[in-house]
TrEMBL record:
The keyword DNA-binding does not apply. Catalyzes the conversion of N-formimidoyl-L-glutamate to L-glutamate and formamide. It comes from the Bacteria. Its cofactor is Mn(2+). Keywords: Histidine metabolism, Hydrolase, Manganese, Metal-binding. This is Formimidoylglutamase. Mn(2+) 2 binds at D152, H154, D243, D245. It holds the Pfam family Arginase. InterPro entries: HutG, Ureohydrolase, Ureohydrolase_dom_sf. Belongs to the arginase family.
Amino acid sequence: MRQRPDMALWQGRRDPEEGERAKRWHQCIAPLREGSPRGIVVAGVCSDEGVRRNQGRPGARGGPEAIRRAMANQAFHLERPLYDGGNLLCPENHLEDLAQEQARWIEGFLHQGHFPIILGGGHEIALGNYLGLSRHLAKNNPAPSIGIVNFDAHFDLRQGQAPTSGTPFRQVAEYCWKEDLPFLYFCLGISETANTAALFDRAEALGVQYLKDEELTPWNLALAEARLREFLTECDALYLSIDLDVLPGAVAPGVSAPAIRGVSLEVLEHLLRFLRSEAGAKLKLADLAECNPEDDPDGRTARVAARLAHLLAREVPAPVPDKGVEYE
Ligand SMILES: N=CN[C@@H](CCC(=O)O)C(=O)O
Ligand SMILES: [Mn+2]
Ligand SMILES: [Mn+2]
């Protein structure tokens, strides 16, 4: 189920005549090992069973490889070590077991002090990410207030017995209810035409905060900033999820449900930078979900995902030690 990093994927242009500062990601990334100094870990969850179950276009199991290939040639500007943490495979499409196994895997990265950027995979990857962070934080705080900020055209609060790419945050809400934890979920980029009235009702009933795509314009950023700032005051820690279908379909066509309108890349990047500076060390974990290379002309979506990973890795705050752990 766990797959070691395939470093052969990390190929790209080389400019030796330009010297040491002409490096690209493929020249700087290392396989993650036990005891590696704290840094950024990119790791993939190769699952699209959730998308298939959700009546979508499968293919996102190839997302992690496509995003790594796009990352490989990016110029390297990071100030922290960068690692490939390998992949997690969904066992015989048995999504029911994925989240628990993924939670243990994520917890391991966090325990070693890394900032994980998890590459999807359908958005079913969100449940395991949340659970991993929750378990990690529970070591020092039995009832952590984890805020989820999800940039997404969809609420992903669907009902149903079986988990799918459309259910993860409803599953998180149920977990929080059972564990007596607050469910703090803020979804940005909601498309009114892509979410039924039933989903808006569920969001309301669960106390979900949201902003619609049409409210996230460059001339209205103060609204999102004020709402995010207030949201963060309630959170001990932040899990940031980016469903690439929040972007306009022309920018991110390689997803199961491309957006007609979407939120512009400029606005998304602005808000990611804003979150970084407002959340500081509360930001513990990020993911990029739904990249589907089978429907991605010119690898556009993988490349935009790679750029967002660069931004997250560059903007991520210096780690703050968990209790009892010192950073060098
Ligand atoms: N990950 C979520 N996906 C959307 C799919 C919507 C659609 O296929 O139209 C959802 O469930 O709402
Ligand atoms: Mn979506
Ligand atoms: Mn989603």
